[in-house]
Amino acid sequence: MNANPNQPNSHFDEMACLHYLEGQLDRKRALELSAHAEQCGECRALLAALERESRLLTRSMREEDEPVPARLLAPVRERMPWAWIISFGMAAAGAYWLWTAIIDPWRAQLNEAGFGGTNLVTMLFFQGAQWKGWGSMWTLVQVLAVISMCVVGYFLARRGLRRMNTIALVMGALMAALLLPGGANAAEVHKNEPSYTLRSGDTVKNDLIVFGNSIRIDGTVDGDLIAFGNNVTVNGHIMGDVISCGSMLLINGIVDGSVRFGGSMVTLHGKIGKNLMVGAGTVTADSTSEIGWGVMIGGGEVTLDGRIGRDLLTGVGRLQLNGFVGGNVKIQASEGLDIGASADVQGKIEYTGPKQPDVATGAKLSRPIDVKIVERSSKYASSGSIWHMFLQWGAAFIFGLVFLGLAPEVFSECARNAGRYGISIGIGFLFWVGILVASFVACITVVGLGVGLSAFLLLGIATYGAKIVIAAWIGRMALRQSANTGAVIGGMALGLVVEFAIRALPYAFWWFAIPVAAWGFGAFCLTIYGRMRPGILAATSSAAAI
Amino acid sequence: MMEAGKRPEGMNESDQQRLADCIARARTGSLEAWGDLYRKFAGPIFRFCRRALPTREDAEDATTEIFMKVREKLGQYDSSRPFQAWLYKVSANHCWDLLRRRRIRQDLETQDVDETPLEHPDANQLDRLLEESSSKNVRGALAKLPARSRMALVLRYYSDMSYDEIGESLGVRRNFVGVVLLRARHQLREALAGHGSRGMAAGRTP
């Protein structure tokens, strides 16, 4: 089947003929070809054959050789796929778990400890405080929360309402919500000073915010004190709360409100009107100290010799209790509990630790200690309860649904990228460590605290989300199709089942959970990277993009 | 020249106008309009999937999924452009994505186009082959082609897509679309002539 060998250049090749027929040749060349074809029978015949072939192709493909399946012609109805039914059940189970396993116990414990309040977050940080200085950061958090809720609301409502109405409604709600927090009052702020001293006799008629290496308050603050510094000493009088972060906090004076501190060491000689809430390595409250309401401590070495008006709640290494406690005591200690001779506890004591507490003779306890001995064992064995896992599964599933609802394309791209295991796992580990270090650095350079904490938070969320990505990938592999939302959800549910099943195996944390976290996280990073530089992944995802 | 510019549903102007109204209503959420739209295009899209995908079941599922996608993305459709072109683009991307994910054929993995020269056909012989081939034969031969070749032929001769659209859907540079189509035709001829499914070997100069 060769062209005439004697005139190899005079004929047009098949490609040119096809392009001519399809109108793909430029005008000049098309004219050349048609002029040639008029003279050349061979090329004319080829053109005719190719055209015939085109017609045959179109006819064969368009011929209605088989009826359209009745299933497709049935009236379109709103379907309620099984995946949705299951997801509602799971969502309910997950929400129930979040409430019963995390929120409710915390609430109950806080209430028990005398931290009465309505809103958990406000209570943790700013309970009862008329404090406005944190405003900018807090408002940002609120705004983000409100925006995410509005986005969720929009996605939920958009099917029922017309697009514009939905947008209007959601925007209205957004504006209303943003207006609610109200304007913030200014506070007195001192930054970039190596040391700050509020002299005795001086009064700050407002909230006082100080960043500095050494901070010393001998005077009076008629509001809250927010202090970020290496050494913070309060000898004077704080009418509001003290919120502090740094290496050492020493309180010799009087705080009318609550004290909240995160750092390495707290020493208390003075008086706190309301609550003390501390996360620190060493906490010492000597016999002259007085705390009006409750105490909540997470720490290493804790000594409490003073007076506590209400409940005491601790999760510590070792606790020495020699003082007075007006309410109940709940202690979790990994090292042990010593109750000294001068201790006086009015309420009940619940203790969880590795061994029996040492109670000195002479200690006044209203009733025997409720002791629970916990061996320091691998927690994986104890968390093996099916029900517990089921609920965790539900929570992960809800997370996945939210992810899918908010960013369906990112979701499926993540699952697709997870298919590139090697690079995903590598990038996952690299970025995970990198971000961890970076956010730590941001945190210890005080100015970047907000940034560092947000990065930690995001990293945490992304790490948790990693298992969803992998679940989605498993689902894709298993079900083979993932364009259908029901199938995606079903696949994710299945993937999560597989993951949780594997995690029940011994030591799965090390050989499974960590690599999976890196893997999913890496796939997520790849997706984000691809979205920022769309050109790179265009070659692989162009067919998927519509 | 081939009768280009006609899609399988062949419509006149008033049909187009009615279709535009229908789409506009469907976009505001009218179930009735969506139902009309669906009924109008379910057949052509099913047949499209039937040609592009290996089994009937695949085609049924894909049709359902494509319409779900279309419904979700109807808001993104630019109404100044022909609806069918958009619809086929969505369908093409969906089917091609499906095929790619399944890796049905190795050729899907190699993105570059085979550029070995094709043998020049003898027009009379080709004519004879076409003469002898029924539509049914052609469909049978199509089913034996590698996925990309088959997809290219379907996009061009069933959906009447432009070279640009085909290139975009298949992830092939526009200049190569003609090469892909021609190569696909050669493979089809091989299959029609009864050379079995070894399509890739078709047309190689000995």
User: Strand portion of chain A, in percent?
Assistant: 15-25%
Please name the two chains that share the biggest interface, counting residues whose Cβ lies under 8 Å from a Cβ on the partner chain.
A-B, 55 and 73 residues
Give the terminus-to-terminus CA distance of chain B. Answer: 32 Å
By CATH, the architecture of the largest domain in chain B is named: Orthogonal Bundle
User: What spatial form of chain B do the alpha-carbon principal axes imply?
Assistant: elongated
Whole-angstrom Rg of chain B: 18 Å
Structural class of chain B: mainly alpha
Helix content of chain B: 55-70%
Unreliable stretches of chain A:
1-8, 75-81, 115-139, 159-163, 180-186, 377-383, 534-546
CATH class of the largest domain in chain B, named Mainly Alpha
- Could you give the count of β-strands of chain A? 22
Question: Superfamily at the CATH H level of the largest domain in chain B?
Answer: RNA polymerase sigma factor, region 2, helix turn helix motif
Task: Please state the oligomeric state of the protein chains shown.
Answer: heterodimer
Count of spatially separate domains of chain B: 2
Spell out the helices and strands of chain B N to C.
HHHHHHHHH
